[in-house]
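@channel anyone free to eyeball this complex?
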Amino acid sequence: MVNYYIQPNDNPELTEERKKCLFDTQKLAALYYGGFDKLKKKREFEEFIKNLPEFQNEKNLIFMNRLERFDVNSRKSVAFLEHFFNKVDTSNPDEAAMFYEKFFSYDGSPLSLHFFVFLPNILNSMSQEQQEYWLNLVMEKKIIGTYAQTEMGHGTNLRKLETTAIYDKESDSFIINSPTITSTKWWPGNLGKTCNVTILVAQLYIEGKCYGPHSFMVQIRDFNNHMPLPGIIVGDIGPKFAFSSIDNGYIRFNNVKIPREFMFMKYAKVEKGGKYCKPIHEKAAYGSMVFVRSVMILQQAQYLAMACTIAIRYSCIRRQGELDDKSKEVKVLDYQTQQYRLFPQLARCWAFVSAGKYIMELYNKVNQDMTLGNADLLPQLHCLTSGLKAVISYQAGLGIEQCRMSCGGHGYSHASGLPNIYATQIGGCTYEGENMVMLQQCARYIMKIIDNVKNNKNTLKNDKLFGYYFENINNKRCNNIQEIFETISYKTAVEVYNRLNNLKESGMVHELAWNNCAVDLCHVAKAHIRVFLCFVYNEFINKIDDHQIKSVLSLLKELWEKYELIKISTSVLKYNLISNVRLDEIKNEMYDTLKKVRPQAVSIVDSFDFSDRDMISVLGRRDGNVYENLLKWAQESELNQFEVLPSHKKYFLPLTNTTKKSKL
Amino acid sequence: MVNYYIQPNDNPELTEERKKCLFDTQKLAALYYGGFDKLKKKREFEEFIKNLPEFQNEKNLIFMNRLERFDVNSRKSVAFLEHFFNKVDTSNPDEAAMFYEKFFSYDGSPLSLHFFVFLPNILNSMSQEQQEYWLNLVMEKKIIGTYAQTEMGHGTNLRKLETTAIYDKESDSFIINSPTITSTKWWPGNLGKTCNVTILVAQLYIEGKCYGPHSFMVQIRDFNNHMPLPGIIVGDIGPKFAFSSIDNGYIRFNNVKIPREFMFMKYAKVEKGGKYCKPIHEKAAYGSMVFVRSVMILQQAQYLAMACTIAIRYSCIRRQGELDDKSKEVKVLDYQTQQYRLFPQLARCWAFVSAGKYIMELYNKVNQDMTLGNADLLPQLHCLTSGLKAVISYQAGLGIEQCRMSCGGHGYSHASGLPNIYATQIGGCTYEGENMVMLQQCARYIMKIIDNVKNNKNTLKNDKLFGYYFENINNKRCNNIQEIFETISYKTAVEVYNRLNNLKESGMVHELAWNNCAVDLCHVAKAHIRVFLCFVYNEFINKIDDHQIKSVLSLLKELWEKYELIKISTSVLKYNLISNVRLDEIKNEMYDTLKKVRPQAVSIVDSFDFSDRDMISVLGRRDGNVYENLLKWAQESELNQFEVLPSHKKYFLPLTNTTKKSKL
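replying in thread with the prediction:
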């Protein structure tokens, strides 16, 4: 068994770790990327891009201001568009995304929204005829688009968006307006400076009647000189926690007229003269939200995987303090506290990967069903993606910060890459649905299930994800951790369900009763997501053939189960599921598992196969030559371009200009 | 009772909140700042500084690159030095710090280390004669100094620092060297570009013998032209998560010679000829570490207080979704989930404030004792500051992120100020002692106490902070939450103590046994800190005379106690301290407390009396006029200086230059 990441001139601390490898890193990498062919393709892309002229002498983005970043990324965008169609099988969205990813850092690019939101929306929500028209413009590179929904004063509650699209019978067109400050569209990526068209979500009005939010295509800038069109004020919303390379924008409309045909008409339609046709399926619009949340799971896992890679490698390079041998400082990864900070994150990583892969498959199935007119699984998928998105984005954030802090001072420097990974990833708690709202959407579906349970409507009895709610939990034995999680989830849900009903029976309206139970409803959602993660983690590992790979991932899964169990031991004790004494044993077993993971840790993170270009981290370098490169990296600092800062000459030196001696 | 922050033209949403105030905000503000006189002084400084020419038309730092920030802050530094001695009672360190704080944002300045570390070190660790010499140079503004201890490869473990100061008998001087890459001094604030002298911690060698780390004063740049002196390489370490306005630096020495008298000689001494005199008191060097950690408590509380102010005000401006009244969206602060995110943070804030004030008093007492040669309380203070620093910095970080996320998308924008408050504050988990190390230092003292308990050495039996360890806990009734916390702390400590001893009795060396229990030892420390916080919170409130102020803070304390109790309910159940049923009741009481805090929330945060200048936040503005100012703020964005970005013209427009039509 072998770690393929050993190379000459590496830091011997890492080579020593890699020699302990008990599995084939190539096989684990293939598992992460979804097959050897995909791993190969990824490396092919990396090799190809590395040699492009646009990628020579790359400067670290962190040293650039935003204008410089836009210059670099715009140049790369042109190269991207040039090579995309020859190098990529465009019918394969994974491959397309991979190609994009290798061009741009996780900080984003001028094409981010165009590729990942604008195009999918055209494909999912336009009629066939419309698609042809707009995709043609995309292929001719005439348009770069984005998606403008969120307004300055309105996020989650779409029904309250204020932007209006009023049908004008006379001209057979829509007139777009931003009637208030709070109606200003705010946040859409690439809207500020890059895009010349946008999908716009606005309240549709026909003859004074509001039909609710609908999507429209609107040109916002001139195709020749890129100036904003008349009636449009558009700009960048300013710097954010991360995503400096994206021009999140604002836009205001003053009587902007678009042809009727620019409304998205796959589902709802407006005919000439103003006749409104309702969509066949109310929930069809759900689709794109659910899609983005599905994709987010693997993305979030990847941020955490990067942070783990950086922190675990560095923890084998950094030595500090002594244990039994007083003659030599130990690697900090030998401390139990360090292992406890890092390995559960790595274990969660693979739980999230299992979940992400499962959800993508489920999404594809649901999507296929829906084209056949069957939306039965959509509510389940919606429940799962809402809950997962919330749980995973939050846990990934906590995990990345643990990784960062475990690197001590160096973790706080941008040289580690970790501050930016955190700042980027943590956006996931907010975008695509604020987490508290997401958890409650997940809980809403679970409450419906409990309602069915209580009323003996056993609709989902044999469902592998939700069926456990219908089992006779009170007689269930907690033989394994999966069953303990299920029992806790069930009991928590029933408790809240009962409280909710009591409040309503006492005369409270549903919304108020719900609000009174809202925090506990979030717990209900989290409890189910825990069951789901445990289930998919198990299923994922059971499918693995290779003995060694199975063994190393099983170790992580064991750690994950015990770690999560200890985290919720209040419920374990409350429902008397296992004894105090046994719980203490499990805790000690968990500490023992940390020791078992220890020798494999570097090889596990190596197998994520992140290139140094991907990670943008001095601490996380594959070769482990950290310290000399920290010094080298620092030379690029803006301040180091002057031996004496101009501001120092200007302000401080005159303070002491009476000094004659230059030295004490 | 009255909220003094109401003004005409405010956002009526905030005025409505402020009218609900049940206490005198002036009195609560005075309590926060430590008296009416201090509050008055603070406002006086604010008024004075606001009118200085250097502060007119202030641009938001977030839109500046580092060179621009240095220009602005250097200009302000000159003004600061000009006015400091007339405006400030320099014998009052609080007042001096306050004056500094009003000049510079929490992002730091060229004078940060000079004032808060360099000067105190001279005062604490130099002989009287040395002090006179160096303070004179400070007064003449000839020197700006910092403190260089941490090396690239060495942080916490001072004994392993590699920089050497070798005594040269011939010239009666020390020769300073950086023998390896990892010995490069790395991180000291203001070292990179600003300072011309530094306190340097290096291994002292005399005639081949190493005497361990000692402090030396070293000139590093020429007083006339500010160029690095021969043998010195110095520069900025590059960008970090925050603190862009500070030039954290690196420095390398090649045979740099300093006079023998430049060694810090209050404690240890080297005489002419090389005779080494040991310090009278081994622990004297402790002092400055303990001081910085003591100061940090209130600082950390302040970051959290700012975040609470921003989030709570904004949550009364933002409306989203409906509850019982379908005609109007509700303020998001009316959601239980929002209250649960925010109010416990506010409650923790005041717990931290209580702790910070208590610790500063204790520090002053210990310091006084020590000048009289009595260091008895130092180990206690060291234990408390280590543990508190770790617990508070971590909890403040979690809290600030909850505040940020509770603002939805706008919280992610730098317009909220929250990303930078978080990135700044969270450094506190790492600097001045990495938190995991700090918790274990705290636990080390507690293990000694348990050892005394077991051996019936009741040294601290009547101590108000540690005495509970000596009570007969098994017979103790848990009549209130304080007693529950004490019982848990005691039992947790004894459990770990026993496991530690069992491991050692089974033949394990102490360090390995300790490492095997390290995670649980951290829990021991946290459990004691919880007891301490509960104690000081109570004591703080008990001292308040004003009935209304006492009442509103008692509400927060009640929330704090219940929130913390629920967080550790595993231990409550494990030790069978209260029943399941009672625990559920307490949880529901906690939710009820949230509702009681709700109408006072804005007035409580108003009373922190932060000015808009302090907070640098559009969302947190006192006047609540958020939305129009978001739009205004965005105009300053670097990207908005061009209607069409130069990079767009260069790269994207040529892609479509065959287009004739400029509009669809």
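from a first look: Chain B touches chain A through 134 residues (CB under 8 Å).
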